[in-house]
Amino acid sequence: xxxHPARRNIKLVVAYxxxxxxxxxxxxxxxxxxxxxxxxxxxxxxxxxxxxFVTGRTDAGVHAAxxxxxxxxxxxxxxxxxxxxAMNSRLPGDIAIISAEDVPxxxxxxxxxxxxxxxxxxxxxxxxxxMHHEQVYHYYRTLEVAKMRDAACRLIGTHDFRGFATTxxxxxxxxxxxxxxxxxxxxxxxxxxxxxxxxxYNMVRNIVGTLIEIGRGRWPADRIDRxxxxxxxxxxxxxxxxxxxxxxxxxxxx
Length: 254
Known about the structure:
- Strands 1, 2, 3, 4, 5, 6, 7, 8, 9 and 10 form a ten-stranded mixed β-sheet that branches.
- The protein contains five helices and ten strands, in the order βαββαβββαβββααβ.
- It has two domains: 8-103, Alpha-Beta Plaits (2-Layer Sandwich), CATH 3.30.70.580; 114-252, 2-Layer Sandwich (Alpha-Beta Plaits), CATH 3.30.70.
- 21% of the residues lie in helices and 31% in strands.
- By secondary structure, it is α+β, with helices and mostly antiparallel strands.
- The protein has helices spanning 34-46, 80-90, 145-153, 203-215, 223-230; strands at residues 8-16, 53-54, 63-73, 95-103, 113-124, 137-139, 157-160, 175-186, 189-196, 245-252.
- The longest helix has 13 residues, at 34-46.
């Protein structure tokens, strides 16, 4: 049996503004993605090609404050602090490595994760928030936050969220658990924060679109119960635009 070369498993926490990228995942040549930038920076620093594994692939225009990724390297010499600094010096200004650390061989950013927290930012008011362009969703109408909070509470628990998934999502099970769904006001912003054990494709953005319809008075708060009971996507609201969504953090067992 041939011995495998010694290697390290490096865990990264990555932040990025997704406005300029076609999502996280590598695409055809010519389309900029976050994964491509991170892999190229890591490969240059450790001096061999690496593949970066990620907890969840964000879509085009979606941001992250605490995306988690990992990669394997046979470079045993460079300390993680030096690795972080060297990668950041090679990354564009809208991507940053927040931290880098050695983790056990069996750690995997996706398979080891137990949950994720997303936040969606809605700017409410007649004027466009030009200083936060492509970081928030501008909604010009007044929204009733109390009704949105009532509706959000109905999402907490283990449910079949098929009615909040895109119709093209073909996963074997659409049952997920939501631990927290908060609606808060911060100045002119309404923020929807959702923590769950996993999410279907466009699930958070569809939840936000539904909460907006409830907040503007189109539907009552118990519309959520109807969507969960029927699992009918047509009963839910529109898909909120990508620019308001950020992956805040990824959760792992201690």
